[in-house]
Design goal:
Number of strands: 6
Largest sheet: 6 strands, parallel
Order of helices and strands: HHEHEHEHHEHEHEH
Strand order of the largest sheet: 1-4-3-2-5-6
CATH architecture of the largest domain: 3-Layer(aba) Sandwich
Number of helices: 9
Structural class: alpha/beta
Helix content: 40-55%
Radius of gyration: 18 Å
CATH superfamily of the largest domain: HUPs
CATH class of the largest domain: Alpha Beta
Strand content: 15-25%
Amino acid sequence: MAQLCATETLYILERSEICGLKDKFFSKITRTTFKISMYFCVLMGIVATAEEISKIADDLRKQGKKIVTTNGCFDILHTGHVQVLQEAKNLGDVLIVCVNSDSSVKQNKGDKRPINSEKDRAKLISALQCVDYAVIFNEKEPSAILCAIKPNIHTKAADYTIDKIIEKKVVEENGGEIKILNLINGKSTTSMITKIVEAYGTK
């Protein structure tokens, strides 16, 4: 079983409701069972608030952890998303995924999006084994939240070129770097929506 770092253990204790545990039941849980519960909470990741993620990132840096971030709408999760997230996690110790809020998605994708709510999207992303934390941000682009996190590496999929990455400046100003990751051609939320409409839309 993987060993938990102090920050992860403390954070889970502070957010014990994630495991479905209440303080009054702690005395009834064996040490082994509690450790397993904490392990799987970390394994599945945590949805943190914007305020919480800044403190979490600070604590991780003090422990010498390499922090990797990425961002996106992740409206309908698909294999292209999963591959990029797995590649991102392989670049460091901790992966924090910044998820566009519903209002942010509308600014970027139009009024018909998102299909899934910000809470649902963040919960799905955090459930992936490669994701340690998910955090929702409200701005059109992620510069503000990345300034709070100060990642060592910020990743983008290959549908972006380095000169088109708006958040590049704030990442580099805080000592980080940008990495472009591979993309699975033909995999996108838009193409999935199109296929669904073609299959089930009004004739």
